[in-house]
Amino acid sequence: MSSGSAGGRRRPVLTLERIVTETLGLIDEQGIAAASMRTVAQRLGVQAMSLYRHVESREQLFDEVVERVVNELGNDPQVLASASEVGWRAYLTSLAWGVRRYGRAHPHAFPLVATRPTAAPWVNPPLRSLRWIEAMLDSLAAAGFKDEQILFTYRSFNSFLLGYLLLETSAMAIADPKPGDGSFQSGDGSESHDAVDPADPVPGSFTPTRTTESREALADADTPVEVIDVSGDVDAEVYPVIHRLRAGLTEDRFEAEFAAGLDLLLDRIQADIESG
Predict the structure, then answer these.
(1) CB 176 within 8 A of CB 30
(2) pLDDT digit string (tens) for 40-86?
């Protein structure tokens, strides 16, 4: 039987949900470029052609992965469904932190969220699901926002999240590179990180550019002086202010700065409402 295994046990039915789950897991483990149709099929124990009954192409599969990642917001108990009971500021705050959580949960997949073509030119990542966009716009309208205020909030909110999370997730990906990120030559995703170097990045994937040597030097750096100048190119006489601020520049303050930036954005939106 085509649906049976060697032991007579039936395989689980192949569904789009299973395919997307396996693809996202593969991207989390090995990076975007590792997620070929062939590799996904191998992990599912099926022939690659069977995937095309559910998706037309690898590109469509990536779109399904993006939809899955964004819709993790719906399973996040800290994300509020609307602003009706808590007010627009608490609602947007919960939504922003929810987007950050899904970005940090999938740093190697986040470039897909940021760069895959959207359903329409006005759909802005990372809140790129029509379901979530409609909920946000409806909540702001119900909170008394004028149309222009809704549009300003939608665009500025997404712009802040996209810029900040691209920075944060790329830092996470560079610190934990995968064969399919583009940092390493990628065949079947089985190469050792130590055996290859980023001289031949994977076309179409984002490419952290630290070499094996620079990654090892950074891992061995113990002080701000060593971290600020891993390559030996940041001369203290040429860049004195960088060296003076080296302790702060090398600190991981992503969470605190995200909170501060979000508060400033929400303050700006509130000022616009009060003046309008």
Answers:
(1) no
(2) 999 999 999 999 999 999 999 999 999 999 999 999 999 999 999 89
Q: Quote the CA–CA distance of 54 and 37 in Å, as a whole number.
A: 12
Average pLDDT value over all residues in the chain: 83
Instruction: Tell me the per-residue pLDDT of 144-164, one tens digit each, with 9 for 90 and over.
Output: 999 999 999 999 999 999 999
Q: Coil, strand, or helix at residue 111?
A: helix
**3: Cβ–Cβ under 8 A, 6 or more apart, which residues?**
10, 11
| Dist CA 263 CA 140 (whole Å) | 17
Q: Which of 267, 263, 276 is nearest to 147 (CA)?
A: 276
Measured in whole angstroms, how far is the alpha carbon of residue 239 from the centre of its chain? 33
Closest C-alpha among 82, 89, 126 to residue 104: 126
Cβ-in-10-Å burial (0-12, 13-18, 19+) of 276 comes to exposed
Which regions of the chain are under pLDDT 70? 1-9, 182-232
What's 36's DSSP letter? -
Give the CA distances from residue 92 to residues 88, 192, 196, in Å, rounded to whole numbers and listed in that order: 6, 42, 43
* Closest to 123 in 3D by CA, of 63, 62, 61: 63
